[in-house]
């Protein structure tokens, strides 16, 4: 009769408990590092936008308005930033947590990057709660960042060597050039959303148009 298989005990380094502890500790440390880098990037990006708008206004540029910081429900250092441009605006939001980039997003990342945890900053047009992000910035634990959306990708940049004032000017110019408005349709069969309604037409706070980006149908 063969001997009964002896499994490693809890104090044995071969026990899966130790692999579990090691993996969880490493992931926690990586998430904490990403959170610090995300805070650093967000702080510098917001300061860059505030500088860019102030400088543009001082130079006589019309159509921009002072950015507004909005408290994030998560609290702590997190804030959203609203960038008013003419009669519409962009909202920038640092998302909570860390996760792997989604392959289905088709970001032009090296394949290995899709296996790494990253922080994310999402950009939206307007304040529609159901609106989808049109631009994203990913922050990796090695202090590099990657941004893409509507044909304006930035690859393999490092936080330490980024000129955030210049980056803010680039983004603002891109927003103004590439984001367009079009009238809502008069009528869509079987649907109300997206149509021109009397209640919208008579609401001074509403704009009866929708937003689009290059390549949108």
Core attributes:
two-stranded antiparallel ribbon; 3 helices; 7-stranded antiparallel sheet; elongated; alpha+beta; 9 strands; 217 residues
Principal-axes shape call: elongated
Rg, rounded, reads 23 Å
The rounded distance between the terminal residues' Cα atoms is 73 Å
Largest sheet: 7 strands, antiparallel
User: Into how many domains do the coordinates divide?
Assistant: 2
Low-pLDDT stretches are none
Q: Return the average pLDDT rounded to an integer.
A: 89
Q: Describe the strand arrangement of the main beta sheet, using strand numbers.
A: 1-2-3-4-5-6-7
Share of helical residues:
25-40%
Number of helices: 3
Category from helices, strands and their pairing = alpha+beta
Write the element-wise H/E pattern from the N-terminal end onward: HEEEEEEEHEHE
β-sheet strand percentage: 15-25%
Q: Please give the number of β-strands.
A: 9
List the helices and strands and how they pair.
Layout: H1 16-58, E1 68-71, E2 79-85, E3 88-94, E4 118-125, E5 135-140, E6 144-148, E7 154-158, H2 164-178, E8 180-183, H3 198-201, E9 209-212
Antiparallel strand pairs: 1-2, 2-3, 3-4, 4-5, 5-6, 6-7, 8-9
Helix pairs in contact: 1-2
């Amino acid at each position: 009769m063969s001997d009964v298989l002896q499994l490693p005990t809890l104090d044995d380094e071969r026990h899966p408990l130790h692999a579990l502890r090691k993996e969880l500790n490493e992931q926690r440390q990586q998430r904490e590092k990403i959170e610090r880098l995300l805070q650093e990037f967000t702080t510098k990006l917001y300061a860059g936008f505030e500088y860019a708008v102030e400088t543009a206004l001082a130079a006589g540029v019309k159509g921009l308005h002072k950015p507004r910081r909005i408290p994030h429900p998560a609290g702590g250092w997190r804030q959203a930033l609203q960038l008013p441009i003419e009669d519409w605006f962009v909202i920038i939001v640092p998302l909570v947590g860390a996760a792997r980039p989604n392959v289905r997003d088709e970001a032009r990342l090296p394949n290995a990057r899709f296996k790494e945890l990253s922080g994310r900053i999402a950009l939206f047009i307007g304040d529609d709660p159901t609106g989808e992000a049109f631009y994203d910035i990913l922050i990796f634990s090695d202090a590099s960042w990657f941004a893409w959306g509507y044909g304006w990708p930035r690859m393999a940049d490092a936080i330490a060597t980024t000129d955030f004032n210049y980056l803010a000017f680039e983004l603002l110019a891109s927003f103004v050039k590439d984001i367009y408005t079009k009238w809502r349709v008069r009528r869509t069969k079987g649907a109300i959303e997206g149509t021109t309604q009397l209640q919208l037409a008579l609401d001074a706070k509403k704009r009866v148009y929708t937003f689009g980006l290059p390549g949108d149908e």
